[in-house]
Amino acid sequence: MTRPVALVTGGARGIGRAIAEEMAADHYIALTYLGGGPEAAAFAADHPSTLLIQADLTEMPAQVLIDQVADHFGRLDLLVNNAGHVQENPWDSFDAAIASHAMLLNAVVPMALIAAAAPKMPRGASIVNIASTNARFPPNAAPDYGASKAALLNITTSAAKMFAPMGLRVNAVSPGAVERAYKPRPAEMVAEIEAATPLGAMATVTDVARAVRFLASPAAASITGEEITVAGGYGLF
User: Fold this and answer.
1) Which end of the chain has fewer CB within 10 Å, C or N?
2) Structure confidence by residue, pLDDT tens digits, 199-230
3) Is residue 236 part of a domain?
4) Is 172 left (phi over 0), alpha (psi -120 to 50) or beta?
5) Residue 181 CB coordination number (10 Å)
6) Is 128 in contact with 80 (CB distance < 8 Å)?
7) One of 28, 33, 145, 234 is an active-site residue; which one?
8) Does a structural domain hold residue 209?
9) Tell me, what CATH number does 215's domain have?
10) Whole domain around residue 44: which residue ranges?
């Protein structure tokens, strides 16, 4: 197949779904999901060439997933490490098991997928990690989530350096709080976030997806090891 192939982890809902929709215009899509089966099926109904893979990425070996995608389509041109997890785990009731799961899914799994995918990707291919502004502004209720996303940014820099000689680019997109139809935020929380955002509004999942599309495109051919923040200027002032 000559059409490029994108693997989007956690692609059934939210940011992942928006990324899959954005990339489907000119890519075949492989999409992993754990929950969100109906949403994943709806996406595949709209894009019949989609490869749906239901998997717990903390249990499925990275090489198995990458081989499944590469064997099905014959190639892999874009890996988007979007799947992630956040759970309240404040300092005053810290649970190491919760923190370990956050680090595993949000940092170790993307690292393993990059290691498995890179040898199968052609020159000019791209990897985009979905990090978070919480890497710099860790939430009091989930400091382990912030730590895991900071680790993902470090992984992005390391992988960019490691795989540049192979012609692969590795970048990150860091969303702030985003509008999400499947799990709306309380109105008072939205108001607080918007008041602290210089542009006056939260970003949308489509805004994040368009940043991913840019980094995956030839327009970003000389960009690697970088982070694009999509947060309306949150934290700048």
Assistant:
1) C
2) 999 999 999 999 999 999 999 999 999 999 99
3) no
4) beta
5) 10
6) yes
7) 145
8) yes
9) 3.40.50.720
10) 5-230
